[in-house]
Give the backbone structure.
Amino acid sequence: MVNLNVDIAGLKLKNPVTTASGTFGFGEEFEDFIDLNKLGGIFVKGLTLHNREGNDYPRMAETPSGMLNAVGLQNKGIDYFLNTIYPRIKKWDTEIFPNINGSVVEDYVAVAEKLVGVEGINGLELNISCPNVKEGGMAFGVSCPSAIAVTKAVRDVYDKPIIVKLSPNVTDITEIAKGVEGAGADSVSLVNTLLGMAIDAATKKPVLSTITGGLSGPAIKPVALRMVWQVYNAVKIPIVGMGGIMNGTDAIEFMLAGSTAIQVGTANFIDPQISIKIIDEIEAYCINNGITDVNELIGGLIT
Amino acid sequence: MKRVQDFTVIETQWLNSTSYLLVLGSQSNIEEIRPGNFAEIKVPDAADVFLRRPISVYDVDHQNNTISFYIKAIGKGTIKLGALDNGSKVDIVYPLGNSFNSIESGNALIIGGGSGIAPFTLLAEELKEKNSKVTYLFGARTSEDIVLQDEFAKHGNVLVTTEDGSLGEKGLVTQHSVFNNITDFDIIYTCGPDPMMKAVSKIAESNDIVCEASLENMMACGFGACLCCVTPTVRGNECVCTEGPVFNSKDLKW
Ligand SMILES: Cc1cc2nc3c(=O)[nH]c(=O)nc-3n(C[C@H](O)[C@H](O)[C@H](O)COP(=O)(O)OP(=O)(O)OC[C@H]3O[C@@H](n4cnc5c(N)ncnc54)[C@H](O)[C@@H]3O)c2cc1C
Ligand SMILES: Cc1cc2nc3c(=O)[nH]c(=O)nc-3n(C[C@H](O)[C@H](O)[C@H](O)COP(=O)(O)O)c2cc1C
Ligand code: FES
C-alpha cells in the first residue's frame, strides 16, 4: 500500500493529482468519462465578479506539441457559479477550488468575499497570471508590488488556504513567489500559460483574434519544470506544479522538482481519462521503486 | 453516454483525389448516434497532430459494430487519417454535440458544400422514417467533387450545382432554380463553408422557413471543457461543441 495523501497548507488531498483551471470545465464535462471522486482536486474554470463573454473566435491555435488559447476568462460570474453550478458539483468527494480573477484588486476581493463560509469550498486559487485579458490578469503577476498587493487584499478577507497562481512570463519567478509568500499566500501554483503567437503565412494574418495568446502543453514542460525547481528552492510554502503534464512520468518529474501536488491541463482535451491514469501511474511508480509514501517524491531530485 | 472507444481501421475508400470514407470497427457495441453528432478522432502516431480532429458521423452499423466518416483531406491530420493501413488502431471520443431536429411528414431541403455533406445520410434516413420528403442540393467547384450521389439518392432527390457547370446547374448553390419555389419547403438543413451557410440562412429567414445550420468551428476538446470553439449567438458566446454544432440560424449572430 502506498500513501498517496498530500497536504496543501493543512488541506488534505487524497492524492497529488488535480485538474487545471480552464481545461476541465466545472468537472461535469468529464462525468461520462471518469469517476471524479478519485481526483485529488478540481480547479474549476476561471471566475470573475460579473459575466464575461471572453474574446472573439478564433481563440485556439494548434502549435508544435501544444496549443495557444485566448479564451479570455469566459464565465457567467461568481454568483451564477455559487447559485447554479456549485450545488450540482459539490456532491463529489474531491476538493473543488475556485480560480478567481479580476481587473482591479477590488474585484478579486469581492469574489473572495463571496466564497467565505461556503460549505465544502476549502481553498481558492488566486489567478494573477491570465495572459488573455486586457486589464488586470497577468499584469498583477508580472510585477512584485502588485502581486503582493492583491495577495494581501484577498488574505485580509479570506481565511482558508490561498493558492496564488504564478505567471511564467517574468524575468525572475522566485521574486514574485517570495513576495506572495510574504503577503500571506499558503501555496503557489505554477505555471500559467506562456505568452505566444501564431501567424498564418497564407493570409499574413494572426491565427488568434487577440493576436497573442497563452501557450500550453508539452512544449512548455521544460520551462515549467525549471520554474518549479527554482521556486522550490526559494520558498517554504507548498507548490502545485503544472505545464505540459501528459502522463504519470511527467507528474513524477514535477514532484521531484518540488511540487506537492500537480495539475493536469491541456492533456484532458486529448484524453479525457488521463487524470485518473496519472494517479494509477504514480502509484505504480511508487510500488516499483519501493516508495511507501508519495510525499517522499517531493523535491526528491538527486543533484 | 460519451466515451473513449478503441477501433481498428476496416477500410479506407477513396472517393476522389481529396476525399474518402473511413470505416472503423470495434469489438464492443457502438453508442447511439443522432444525425449531426460528431466524434473527436485521435490521429495515431502523428507527433505533429497534437489535438484530436472533430469529424461528423457519416454512417453507423450497430449489427457489425462499425462507424464511418466522410473526410476531406485538407491538412496534416486528415491526410494522415486517410493513409492508415487496414487494422491500424484509432481511438475516438464520441458521440459529441447536439443533433438536427428532423421533422414529421414535411418537405425538407438539405444543402451541403465541401465536407458539409457528411451528416446528411443519417439525417435523411431519419426524415424518411418520419414520412418527410427529402431533397438534397449539393454545391461544388466541379463534377469531380460531387461524390456519394447514389448513397444519398436512396433517401431523396439529389440536385447539384457546380461552379464550372460540369454537373447539374452552373453557379453557386444559392443560384439553383430550386430557390424559385423555396416556399414549398418546411425546413432547410445546411452544412458547409460559413459564407454558403450564411447565404442559405438569409434566404430561409426572408421566406420564413426554419433553417438549421451545422457549424465547423475549430475545436480543442469537443466536449465543453476548453471554451475555444464559441460562436456568437443571441444568448452570448456559445460552444459549438456542446450547444451545437447544429444551431437554428435565427439564433446565430454571425
Ligand atoms: C463539428 C465538426 C464536424 C466536422 N465534420 C467533418 C467531416 O465530417 N468531414 C470532414 O472532412 N471535416 C469535418 N470537419 C472539419 C475538420 O475537423 C477539419 O477539416 C480538420 O480538423 C482539419 O484537420 P487537418 O489536420 O487535416 O488540418 P490542419 O493541418 O489542422 O489545417 C489545414 C487547414 O485547414 C484549416 N482548418 C483546420 N480545422 C478547420 C475547421 N474545423 N474548419 C475549417 N478549417 C479548418 C486550418 O486553418 C488550415 O488552414 C468538422 C469540423 C467540426 C468542428
Ligand atoms: C483553454 C485553456 C483555458 C485556460 N483557462 C485558465 C483559467 O481560466 N484560469 C487559469 O488560472 N488558468 C487557465 N489556463 C491555464 C492552465 O490552467 C494551465 O496553467 C496551463 O494550461 C499549463 O498547463 P498544461 O500545459 O498542462 O495545460 C487555461 C489553459 C487553457 C489551455
Ligand atoms: S472545443 Fe472545447 S469547449 Fe468546444
In short: The longest strand of chain A covers residues 259-264. Residues 274-288 of chain A form the longest helix (15 residues). Residues B 38, 49, 53-56, 69-72, 74-78, 115, 118, 216-219, 245 surround flavin-adenine dinucleotide (ligand 1) (CB under 6 Å).
